[in-house]
Amino acid sequence: MISATIQGIDKSNNRAHITAQNGKLITGEAQRECVNEILRDCKEVSADDEVYCKLDNGKLFCALYHPIKDDIGRMRIALIVWDKDTSNELIQKTLEVMGLELKRFLELKSAFEERFVARDKSGGRNIWIAVGGVALVAFVAYLILKK
Questions:
Q1: CB neighbours of 2 closer than 8 A, spacing ≥ 6?
Q2: Is 142 domain-assigned?
Q3: What is the pLDDT of residues 94-137, one digit of tens each?
Q4: Residue 145 falls inside a structural domain
Q5: What is the DSSP code (8-state) at residue 8?
Q6: What's the rounded Cα separation, in Å, for the pair 107 and 122?
Q7: pLDDT of residue 15
């Protein structure tokens, strides 16, 4: 499942949010529930700028600027939340229906994945350094106690 929401463009409808779920625009009560769920899911994330991250609940999150500003010139930022099992096709369809740029989304995703891989690689190296350090301390302690 994927959900996305963004502030509306003009004040004629009080800048009502535009919301999509699983590639389709939604309105009414379904929209209100969806927006509330998105906000609950991403409450720990500061979305003052574009970001792509994993949430504490295991879902993924992306804040992405919309290419069209609102009627008074402000940048609008879309909030997107999805499960790790959501297909790439459904993600793409949802971004398209919201008018968001797939290319920018993929750039943020790639940067996130690079950081994740780099962290995993350094984490593995740090484990071996720690194991080696513990082994060295144990060996020194053995030599001291042996005397």
A1: 21, 22, 23, 80, 81, 82, 83, 86, 90, 91, 94
A2: no
A3: 999 999 999 999 999 999 999 877 665 555 555 556 666 566 56
A4: no
A5: -
A6: 23
A7: 72
Residue 18 DSSP label: E
Round to whole Å and give the CA distance between 23 and 121: 35
Mean of the per-residue pLDDT values for the chain? 85
Report how many domains make up the chain. Answer: 1
Distance between CA atoms of residues 84 and 54, nearest Å: 9
Is 135 part of a structural domain of the chain?
A: no
Owning domain of residue 94: 2-121
**What long-range pairs does 101-106 form, CB within 8 A, spacing at least 24?**
101/64, 101/67, 104/50, 104/64, 104/65, 105/52, 105/62, 105/64
Number of neighbours of residue 91 by Cβ within 10 angstroms: 22
pLDDT value for 117: 73
**Residue 79 banded pLDDT, cuts 50, 70, 90:** very high
Which residue reads 């804040």 in tokens? 63
Cβ distance 1 to 85 under 8 Å?
no
CA quadruple 96, 57, 114, 88: dihedral sign: negative
